[in-house]
Known about the structure:
CATH class of the largest domain: Alpha Beta
Number of strands: 12
Number of domains: 2
Largest sheet: 6 strands, parallel
Shape: elongated
Helix content: 25-40%
Order of helices and strands: EHEEHEHHEHHEHHEEHHHHEHHEEHEHH
Strand content: 5-15%
CATH architecture of the largest domain: 3-Layer(aba) Sandwich
Strand order of the largest sheet: 3-2-1-4-5-6
Structural class: alpha/beta
Amino acid sequence: MKANIFRGIKALSLEQATVLPHLTYRLAQDGVHVIRLENPQFSDPNRQAGDKVLDEEMMNTYFFHINAGKKAITLNLRHEKGQEILKKLIGGLNIDIFATNQLPRNYQKLGIDYETLSEVKRDLIWLGITGFGPESNEVAYDPILQARSGLMEVTGEKDGPPLVIGVPLSDLGTSEHSYGQIMKALFKREKTGEGSRIYMSMFQSSVSWLTVATSMTATFGQEVTRRGNTHQFFAPVSVYRTADGYVYMAMGNDRQWEDLVKIPGFENLAIKDYKKNAGRIADYQALNEKIEEVTRGKTTDEMLALFNQARIPASKVNTIPDVLREPLVSDKLLYTKDTKTGLKVTLAPPPIDTPFLQSLNRELSFPPRFGEHNNEIYGQVLGFSESELVELRTEGII
């Protein structure tokens, strides 16, 4: 396979926060040429979150993790001249994908609506990510989507309050769903020569993860809510304390249960009521207490050795440093290095290895500074003279 099958594909993204920057970061990992677009007066707020490790403005640590591999320019789209320059960017750079997570009410106001931009490039793939769809201008952040979509309702302890998930699933899930739609649009364009207009709702994306909850509630009238570390339909499934930490065990069938009760210490659980999953579910709280009486007497490593030997699915509950030391992770990590300061940042591994990332030795270009590539793109590519660039800066256009 070629190292970069996306060579020549260009994406221009009016992006901020997490949901869209994560998507374009995924595209950059594929070798797509990504240019992030920001207002010259109002940068992406994520640039100012986290620690100021570079001793410079708008390059704080929270910005690093999903913006490597991109270029960055600024453009004031509230100005008519800025909108004309946007059209020159779309046409002059031969942009394939334009994406935005602006509110729909700003589409026409900023000249970023599909109708306007597709007039410049007929086969443009246009993506608009919003909280609740193109008919809504309601502002939404990930935890708001988690709350409204029911994700919080099914997360947390049984008798405790709803909790947000430990990762921003509404953001990341919508990014991944959008990634799939972009791939379909590229395939469609390859087959038909036609562009696409894609509307992505973070709310709909979030609710789509409620697969079991939807069917059980709507069809069978069954309450589905949070249960902590246990499972509504399988037992035993939970986190169990050991002598030096925790182990998570997930029982998926009755055969595995038969193997468990053969392990020394668990023999007294080999009773008729627990032989079938339904019986174990009916008494899951008492069952978990009995299991923990055994696990507390052994270290995590000792318990894992016993579970693995009996083919019982189990794992240590890893800390993040533990995860990064995992052999399946440590050699899959990505990196980015600042040529200006020498700072090297470790990035999460991609969902799948690609020849493109391997050709880069797993190192992406450093997250771009605010407007870092204005001179390159406006001057060298679009041909604006130095005096024109000075004038555009003076007018607050770039």
